[in-house]
Each structure stands twice: as structure tokens, then as C-alpha cells.
């Protein structure tokens, strides 16, 4: 028996956990599953513009060797320009940009370079669970601060500050938020960043959905709002530019350089140890960022993503005992099941039961480190007719389901 490392005991990633494993078993038996569990645009026919793929194809011959450990210069230059022109972050240079095999790799690298055993990191709840898993994998402890549904899923800033101890090293911000779809107001973001300022915390800002905004919502980049703070901003190609499979992400270090000097040496060490990011995929970055690609038509009334969000939201709210915040950004709905109507004790079991009975694959709320079992996440990337079919099945299931 070869046992797994003990440090994995507290690492979970339920988006691809037991519910997905059961879905694969059902598929192997011949069942067709409606998969609304992962924000993966391509299976739903949402593709990047051909111009980006053409540039990648044209660059293949020159992409056969290792690049700089931080990534190829044209891609890092494009990201630096994007931060200045699009996000309003001043002073970013290509030397401040680290490219990775998706944002996921960069999250793990950023935390491995930071944490000593027992260090604490403030992470929102609900969260994108990779953040909690990566903190625990790095030997730290994820401490969850509350995001309040009654505040449009904005963070409870006072609660976040109340959790700070001498071991607290960093503050994670996920904005626009996965799984809730919240886009934080500027006053809330400023207050959260002021907590980091007063307690000298490193800010890690996950902004992968920065351009996916609805109904006039405005995204404020943490690095632009707080130029005096050391901020690590993470983004990439998978959502706005519909290139999830390319695994092209970036991390940008901004703010005063002196406080980050030693930390960045550690980040460079980890970048060197993996040799470099995938070189062909890096060529998609300048092609997309400098190519004038605009996702806005998909987000406006009549646009596909807007119509899908609205249809799924309305359909969910029509289910007795279900309510749902209307997301201002990202690609997800996070409906609440009224505990007085739907008495769910184990929401993972509920999602497995839904899968087995209705062949619809969703993700349970506790998989996002939510302390209560009264939420599920629905990805609204599928066409409207598929979403309506899936949510109709969910309603039929909930009408008789008991635990």
C-alpha cells in the first residue's frame, strides 16, 4: 500500500469530486448527462475568434524551445499594456508579469512562495475552492471570511478584519466572484483593501472574470484602487477569450517593489523549477489582448450569455422554495434552497441523487466552502433550451425530494 501524503488530508476540490465521478459512471452506462458543473465555454460552442487561433498556428514553428521562465516577452508585454490601458493599473512592466499554465498553477505557485507552516490566509466563503485547497497544500490554514447574500454577496468587511491574527499573511479577493456572480462595489473593495493596508497583508486578487459583466456593472481592479499596496492580480484566457484548454494565465505583481523583493525571488525560483509555461499557448495572449476582441456583444440584451443568464435565473426563481441572486458578472448562478421548504442536510448527496434521478450535473454549495448546505451552483453556459430542460428537471426533483 502506497499511502498519499498527509498534507492532502485537508485538500478538497469538489467541483471535480465525488459527484463528477458518479456522472462518469452513469455516462459509462450509456446515460446522457446535462453538465452544468464547470465553466468550460468550448463544449457549449463558445469559441475564441479565429484570428487568435491563426496567430498561435503561425507561431508553432518558433515555439519548440523553452521560453523565459516567466513566459515569452510579447505575451508579458501585452499583459502589461492591458493592465495599464484596460484596468488602469500604473507602473506595470513586463518584468512584473509571470505567465502560467492557467491561473490554477499560478495560485499554487503564489501561495507556495509565501506560506510557512501554520500561516493563515483570509479566503472568502463561498470561494473558488482551489484557493482553500492551495493554502492548505502549501502548509497554511485558510480562514474564511463571510460574503453576505443579503449584501449582494459582497464581503462582510468587519467579519474579515475580526479574523486577523498575528499569523495572518494575506487576503484573497475573488472579484467578479465565482460561485456567486457578485461584482464588488467600489466602497466595499476600498474597505477590504484598507483592512489589508492596516494589517500589512499581501493582497491576492483573482480577476479572471474582469470583462464578464452584466447590466452596467463595473469591475474595479484591486491593484488600481490601491496602488500603494503590494497586490498580486491573477487573470487569463479561459473565460473572456474562451480558451480554457490553452491553460494561458498570468500573475501581475504591482504596488511598491521593496516589500515584494524577497517574495519575488521565491516566485522566480518556482517559475524556474517548472522550466516555463507552455510556449505555443502563450502566443494566444498578445493575439487576444492586442486584437480588439470584445466579449460585450455576448453580455448585452440579446447577447447569448445575457439571454442564458436571464432565462436560467427566471426558471430557478419559479421553483417553489428557491431564490437566487441575479449575478452581475461571471458565468454562474448560486441559488438558495429555503431550508424550511427543502430540508437538505447533505447537499453533496442531494446533487448525487439529482444526478442519478434526473441526469443533471450541478455542484453543491459546501463544495465552495460554504458552511451551510442550502445552495447549489449552476453554470449558465449552455443554450437556453438546455438550461430550461435542466432546471425543469431540478424543479421536478425538488418537488418530491426528502432527506
Short overview:
This protein has 15 helices and 15 strands.
Description:
With 403 residues, the protein is α/β, with parallel strands linked by helices. It has 2 domains: 146 residues, Aspartate Aminotransferase, domain 1, CATH 3.90.1150; 240 residues, Type I PLP-dependent aspartate aminotransferase-like (Major domain) (Aspartate Aminotransferase, domain 2, 3-Layer(aba) Sandwich), CATH 3.40.640.10. The chain contains 15 helices and 15 strands. The strands form 4 sheets. The chain has an 8-stranded mixed sheet. It has a 3-stranded antiparallel sheet with strand order 11-15-14. A two-stranded parallel ribbon has the order 1-13. The two termini are 36 Å apart. The mean pLDDT is 95.
Task: Give short descriptive properties of this protein.
403 residues; Aspartate Aminotransferase, domain 1; Aspartate Aminotransferase, domain 2; 8-stranded mixed β-sheet; 3-stranded antiparallel β-sheet; 15 helices; globular
CA-atom Rg in angstroms? 21 Å
* Broad CATH class of the largest domain: Alpha Beta
Ends apart, CA distance between termini: 36 Å
Largest sheet: 8 strands, mixed
Amino acid at each position: 500500500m502506497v499511502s498519499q501524503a498527509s498534507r492532502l488530508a485537508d485538500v478538497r476540490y469538489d467541483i471535480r469530486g465525488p459527484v463528477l465521478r458518479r456522472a462518469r459512471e452513469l455516462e459509462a452506462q450509456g446515460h446522457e448527462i446535462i453538465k452544468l458543473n464547470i465553466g468550460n465555454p468550448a463544449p457549449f460552442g463558445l469559441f475564441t475568434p479565429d484570428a487568435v487561433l491563426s496567430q498561435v498556428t503561425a507561431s508553432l514553428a518558433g515555439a519548440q524551445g523553452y521560453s523565459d521562465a516567466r513566459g515569452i516577452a510579447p505575451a508579458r508585454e501585452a499583459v502589461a499594456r492591458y493592465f495599464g490601458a484596460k484596468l488602469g493599473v500604473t507602473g506595470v512592466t513586463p518584468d512584473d508579469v509571470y505567465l502560467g499554465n492557467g491561473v490554477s498553477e499560478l495560485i499554487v505557485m503564489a501561495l507556495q512562495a509565501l506560506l510557512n507552516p501554520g500561516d493563515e490566509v483570509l479566503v472568502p466563503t463561498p470561494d473558488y475552492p482551489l484557493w482553500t485547497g492551495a493554502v492548505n497544500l502549501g502548509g497554511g490554514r485558510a480562514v474564511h471570511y463571510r460574503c453576505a447574500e443579503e449584501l449582494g454577496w459582497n464581503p462582510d468587511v468587519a467579519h474579515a478584519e475580526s479574523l486577523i491574527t498575528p499569523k495572518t499573511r494575506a487576503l484573497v479577493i475573488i472579484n467578479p466572484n465565482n460561485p456567486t456572480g457578485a461584482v464588488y462595489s467600489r466602497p466595499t473593495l476600498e474597505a477590504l483593501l484598507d483592512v489589508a493596508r492596516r494589517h500589512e497583508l499581501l493582497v491576492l486578487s483573482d480577476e479572471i472574470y474582469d470583462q464578464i459583466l452584466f447590466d452596467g456593472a463595473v469591475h474595479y481592479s484591486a491593484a488600481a484602487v490601491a496602488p500603494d499596496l503590494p497586490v498580486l492580480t491573477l487573470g487569463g484566457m479561459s473565460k473572456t477569450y474562451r480558451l480554457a484548454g490553452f491553460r494561458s494565465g498570468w500573475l501581475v505583481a504591482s504596488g511598491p517593489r521593496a516589500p515584494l523583493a524577497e517574495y519575488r525571488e521565491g516566485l522566480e525560483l518556482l517559475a524556474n523549477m517548472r522550466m516555463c509555461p507552455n510556449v505555443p499557448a502563450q502566443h494566444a495572449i498578445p493575439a487576444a489582448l492586442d486584437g480588439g476582441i470584445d466579449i460585450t456583444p455576448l453580455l448585452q440584451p440579446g447577447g447569448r450569455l445575457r439571454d442564458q443568464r436571464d432565462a436560467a435565473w427566471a426558471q430557478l426563481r419559479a421553483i417553489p422554495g428557491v431564490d437566487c441572486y441575479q449575478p452581475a458578472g461571471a458565468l454562474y448562478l448560486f441559488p438558495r434552497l429555503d431550508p424550511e421548504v427543502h430540508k437538505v442536510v447533505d447537499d453533496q448527496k442531494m446533487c448525487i441523487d439529482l444526478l442519478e434521478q434526473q441526469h443533471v450535473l450541478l455542484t453543491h454549495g459546501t463544495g465552495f466552502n460554504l458552511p451551510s448546505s442550502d445552495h447549489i451552483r449552476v453554470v449558465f453556459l449552455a443554450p437556453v433550451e438546455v438550461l430550461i430542460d435542466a432546471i425543469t428537471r431540478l424543479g421536478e426533483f425538488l418537488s418530491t425530494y426528502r432527506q
